[in-house]
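Quick one - first record:
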Amino acid sequence: MNEFETFSQLHYGEEPLLIGNVWDVTSAKIFEEAGFKAIATSSAAIANSMGYEDGENMPFDLLLETVFRIKKNTSIPLSVDVERGYAGTIPGILQSIEKVYDAGAVGINIEDSLKDSRLRSVESFQKLISCIANHLSRKNMQLFINARTDAFLLKLPNASDETVLRANAYEAAGANGLFIPFITSITDIKKVVAVTSLPVSVFFCKSLPDFKTLAGAGIKRISMGTALFRSMKKDMVARIEAIQHTQSANSLF
């Protein structure tokens, strides 16, 4: 079984796949040493660690170098957040995805929202997913397409119905998974899970139910997003303040 097959299979276990979201080699190795079965990049964490804002503001070559270094130093499946594809055209997006694949990724997240906080039309994103899936098939490239839909992230009043509509469209287009940031209601989750055979993913946010409850609702993948990265930054601030307050290094040991 190759890495792509292993990664795909992990989305169909009895318990949700818990993904460790990473931003450099050190964070990736820590997750692997902790026994995680797969890792994925956090676009925001990588960008912030490099001095950029999230949202494709970091140079794509810098993302590729990070992916390459992570993959070279770990042996578990790696998925990459390519945001909107780092290009304004479908051929450009396909080229970006090929480069991520060549760097060692077995999966991608690609999102259906635009930089101005609007959703792309269902038809245009469905076409993009179809083009990606067909391109990968023609090139004999195995890559797990996790289609991210952002109706809940954008707090649309009809987020539940919009997500159901997009779940059906993206599955038909050839997506391998459906990723729904900021969906937290078990009622909403069950509603989406009921209309698609795709493994549905969520990520850490303040009101997210516990893993057992999510599993019972049909969730198959749980990502950390930037939660751990943000938590570590807060912890570092607290430790620095303790050093300043105590005029001692004792708080580090």
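second record:
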Amino acid sequence: NPKELVMQKAQDDAFVTIVEKGYERTGLNDWHTKNFFYLERGPYTIVSAMTENKDTASVVINRQVIDLFNPRLPVLNKKVIPPGEQAFLYDLRRVNDQKTPAVLCAAARIYKEERFEKSYSFQAKSPTKTINAMRILLPIKPLQIEVSSSVENKAAEFEYEWDENSHTLLLQFQNRSEGVDVKLSW
């Protein structure tokens, strides 16, 4: 039972010894432990740097990622995770099609996507009175950004920031449960 391995300090030592000996029987002699958990699934990378190990090194991710734990969804070229901290990242190198516009991450569900030669539009739905932050992959910097209420068709306030290096747009606005329409043109 895995629970038995973690309820008391050093209870897992016998289990780790069994795993280490099994590893050595395969003929591989470079067994060593690390101070972190690391998982990749699709475009996501999850890292948890632990404090329970003698190794106190930070985990360093040296590639372009979006920090999903940061509400501003920054694009980083390097992410350092010190012991005792976790990271949830969107790995931009794992985007299959770098030329096709797409919402990569958002605080909303995305509906009614339409892609044309020089525009990309969609509807975002999320609880009213919450702030939406999203990162959108685009082929080039948009010349025009339109954000409006899906029901009233009334222009909505928004903030944006273009990241030329990743070709992504950070777009923020007030969510509406009935939907917010977004149109980006270049």
